[in-house]
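Encode chain A's predicted structure.
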Amino acid sequence: MTVITLSPSGPAALFAEFDRRHPQLTRYGLVLLVLGAIAMALQVLDPRTLASGVNIWVKPAKFLVSVGVFALTTAWFMGYVRPERRGGRLMRFTAWTLIASGSFELLYISFQAAQGQESHFNLSTPFHIAMYALMGIGAVILTATTLPLAWEIVRRPAPGLQRSFVAAVAIGLVLTFVLGGWMGSYMSSQPGHAVGQVGGGVPVFGWNRLGGDLRIAHFFGIHAEQAIPLLGAAAAGLPTRLRWSAILGGSAIYAALTIGVFLQAVAGRALVPA
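Encoded structure for chain A:
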């Protein structure tokens, strides 16, 4: 069996393939990316900042892009489910749960930003405490949508997929929930994402460069669903035993590195020192 490959001739062909795999998630993801671009533009047009000194539209922009990429990744992986199962009850439930939980997170984050207030770690009033708790639940539900998708791909993969590639996709999806969900939950239980000294900032990401930053390990955990399948695709041409070794070994190394980055942050040490 071979990995299904795609060589689209341009953006239109790529969109058509995404749309074939799952139109609702494709459109949802693209809308979020457009809104993310608008939020980036608002950082220039609206100079207001939070108490931390960060522009109020930075967080909405990051989360819009992040959830948009998550939705598009899920849409793509829907193509690895047998066509007759793609429109089944479980996959429909998974897709609409992703859209509902993602939209709840983004609406509240954007609502708070428009008012010049923090959405995360905001315990200033009973309302904000309740909403922060609901955001935590929503985030767990959002990342948990990877599990039924992994189950369906393993149980009923689309024809033409290498077993090792199916395993890579499933491992990536499960690691996203286990590592991303766990580290996100831990971070939410803390007074903030920074540990120890605070200062500097990695370009684009804004990660702390003077002390630990729990967001880094969370980032790596969430993006296991892209990293491990890409490894599986890269190893597709290797002999069977070597292919499996690359995927399983690479997955173990990725998980270990993510946990190592997490422990470094908990210890208050910067991953990229200033």
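The radius of gyration is 19 Å.
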